[in-house]
Amino acid sequence: MGLEEKLPSGILLTTVEGLAGYMRKSSLWPATFGLACCAIEMMTAGGPRYDLARFGMEVFRASPRQADLMIVAGRVSQKMAPVLRQVYDQMANPKWVLAMGVCASSGGMFNNYAIVQGVDHVVPVDIYLPGCPPRPEMLIDAILKLHDKIQHQKLGAHRTAEVQELEQLALAGTSTTELGSSAERRSLLP
Ligand code: SF4
């Protein structure tokens, strides 16, 4: 039995917000951006065993203009940081960033002058994935959580209300970790 049989008279009601979120989460294309060992796990996730194609995401785009998800898979060197930023800037909006692994998220064990201590120093990050290396199952779990976040992303007047609420929380001195991802904080707060 399909969804059609359950609907009264074939009518389906939703909101523009819900529909936009559904379409956005169902059409994510990742940019090709493997930087180190984590990239091997990312490639495995695209293979037949884990099958990212289930989500229509198996085509890693070589052009940032055709991608709306950057999976930062591996440590980011100081030399690579401006390149990463340029690729991010060339991606079309709306776009999302997934920091894959402890190195991309915080520098990990590479606490030295050559490695950026967290890619959120360079681009806003929507979701952090821990582990060294995170297994493909973990990457898929993070992608599903990102899908959920995109599905519930606010638009229009709802987004304005959300921004005002975040500003009030910031003025009240609420911890920034309670204000959502760094992407939301940077894009929404003055
Ligand atoms: S988190 Fe581990 S597997 Fe991933 S890039 Fe760093 S050292 Fe490599």
Describe the structure in your own words.
The protein is α/β, with parallel strands linked by helices. Helices cover 41% and strands 8% of the residues. It is built from 8 helices and 4 strands, in the order ααβαβαβαβααα. Strands 1-2-3-4 form a 4-stranded parallel beta sheet. Helix 5 (101-106) links the parallel strand 3 and strand 4. The longest helix has 16 residues, at 136-151. It is globular, with a radius of gyration of 18 Å. Residues 175-179 have low confidence and may be disordered. Iron/sulfur cluster binds at residues 36-38, 74-75, 101-103, 108, 132-133.
Overall pLDDT score: 85
Query: What multimeric state do the chains show?
Result: single chain
| Structure ligands | iron/sulfur cluster
What is the β-strand count?
4
- Strand residues, percent: 5-15%
Helicity range: 40-55%
Judged by helices, strands and strand pairing, the structural class is alpha/beta
* Helical stretch tally: 8
Q: Order of strands in the sheet with the most strands?
A: 1-2-3-4
Morphology call? globular
Summarize the structure.
This protein is of the alpha/beta class. The protein has helices at 3-6, 16-25, 38-46, 81-90, 101-106, 136-151, 156-171, 182-188, and strands at residues 30-31, 69-73, 96-100, 127-129.
